[in-house]
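Re: weekly structure request thread

Next one in the queue (326 aa):
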Amino acid sequence: MISFKTLLAQENAAPELIDLVAVILSTCHHIAEQVGHGALGNTLGATDAENVQGEVQKKLDVIANNLLIEALTAQGSVRAIASEEEEHARLACSGAPYLVAFDPLDGSSNIDVNGQIGTIFTILKARDDVPDHSDEQFFQTGRDQLCAGYVLYGPYTTLVISTGAVVHEFTLNKSNGEFISSKKDIVFQQGTREFSANMANLFYWPKPFQNYITSLIAPQPANTRFNMRWQGAMVGDVHRILTRGGVFIYPSDTRDVAQPAKLRLLYEAFPMALLVEAAGGCGYTEAGRILDTPLTQLHQRTPVILGDKNWANACFTALSIINTAA
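Done, posted below.
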């Protein structure tokens, strides 16, 4: 049985970086335990508070966020922390080499129905040209990520992680808290006729893109028709396409003119694009590659297309032509 430490060491990851990942995963083990208690642990339901995104926080959101902040603040290799639940970056240890950004519990709407949820994280190199506590520490591109991954709390707890070259999957051994290798060198399956998209937003997408998506599921010969799969949590939907192939699409829409995109570039799009591209897929916004997009605001949002190279390219082409015409 091979641990994540062994595989990361084989990829020449710095020992300090491996130790940092170990702290994140140990915390995710604790989060998995909290998730596993369900209604017996007084962790279901919402709080009376909203996060910086204006979203009502679930009890598990707060628990996961606090556990990660506490663990990372005590970790001497972390200079600053950014959480999707917090307005600004938080200082951990001045002069330390790494930054950590995370979505503590992606898919919060699934908590009370025992659906898929997970933790998404990314690690970057700290900057010496801006103050240690500044949001600007994180103003980098997705290409600057040193490591990214997610932990999916499903029927079993799964880690998917990459330092940018290859992607590995690990499964949590609950008896000792170790993540053990279950899939090495994940390669994206091409040609899968499945897509993940929130079809409830269909009529808020540009009309030509509506037509493109509906053409995929319109009655046609069985061997050319596409299937829609939607978990309602990015971590679950991306795990599906990394496992089976296909494409994940969350384009901009017209529901809120002031906020046309939903997903966050730093906490969700950057790490997921790193994983998808390291596995041989592609990740796009509606203007270019996700990993090439500069972060200029801590909670910056972006349209997201992730998946099969050919299909992701087709979706990107359709949306970029629409946006150019507009």
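The helical segments are 4-10, 15-37, 59-73, 207-217, 234-244, 265-278, 309-325. DSSP finds seven helices and 17 strands in the chain.
Next request, please.
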